[in-house]
User: What shape does this take?
Amino acid sequence: MFVRFSLVLFMMVFGLVMVFFRMDILPDKYSYDSDGYEYASTSEYSGVWVLGDSKENTARVYSILGYGYSVDPLVANLSFFLFGLMFILPVLFLSDFKGLDVVWVLGLYIIFSVYTVQYTKEHLAMLVVSLACALMVWKRYVFSCLLVLFYSVYFRSYFFLFYVLSLATYMLLVLGLGLRVKIFLIVGMYLSCIVALSILLGGDLSSIRYDMNDHRVGSVAAESMILPLFSSGGYAVDILNSVVSVVELVIPFRLVLNGSLLYLAFSVFQIGLIIFLVNRKRFVFASNAELMVLSNIVAFIFVQSLYVPDYGAYLRHVSAIVPLIILFLGFKGYSLDRRVER
Assistant: This one.
């Protein structure tokens, strides 16, 4: 109880510090997207929603909710802070944290607060991911699929790929097969996904990340860019680049070589969290619900590795699944779906 109370107190204090002093503490680049959505939300939108235009549709959502010139920035930030707590607090009471768990939870919440106590696309993404995961745990696959499909069509197309991979990963994990066979099948599935995407894009999967970063090469503000080993070269190069990108996103060795203390701290934190989780879980999971949460986390990070242009964008995007990571970290050992046997 004391640990949980301490976590909640820290989250309240740190979150409020971000609400009132984020602009003074963080460099301007952390608010670049937020400033754009704040301005765009003041427009009065009419007509049909634009298919695939995530920026306009996100601004449209903020506009519908009444965010604009009439909403004080501090009031808006405070509402975003409270919205984030709606996802974090239930997770804390569904979890059991011990010892070093607290370090990882605090680190995850710091990342979460930096990117969610402002205008961002991740508010809606976090809602969709959480609802979809809950529906999947409760075996409401049709409803979760429709939810993610709607979001994919109007906001982020890669979300449907994330959904399909997360569900397929879960199905493979619950098969009555040996651990090595499961890992082999899952890795094969993800490699097949890379091959399929490369074929669909005519062998230009690698060029997407280059195109996204082309105008930023050499910029100080983009020191955390993620570039493939080769800009193009067909299917084989796409596969090689994608595999390297997955490894590099999980183990950010380029950030370590960059020399920045901030990037070094993030690298140490992420690698440490992965080692801690592997050592803690040892491939033993308490319930099918825990496997479902794990499947969503793995699929989300994999899809991010295919195209995300830099670590800043990755951290912003991954803030949408921070509640799931915290839940997985402190799973008590019971199923969220009482019909699933422990």
Remarks:
- Residues 2-329 form one domain.
- The chain is about 70% helix and 0% strand.
- The two ends are 24 Å apart (CA to CA).
- The longest helix spans residues 2-25.
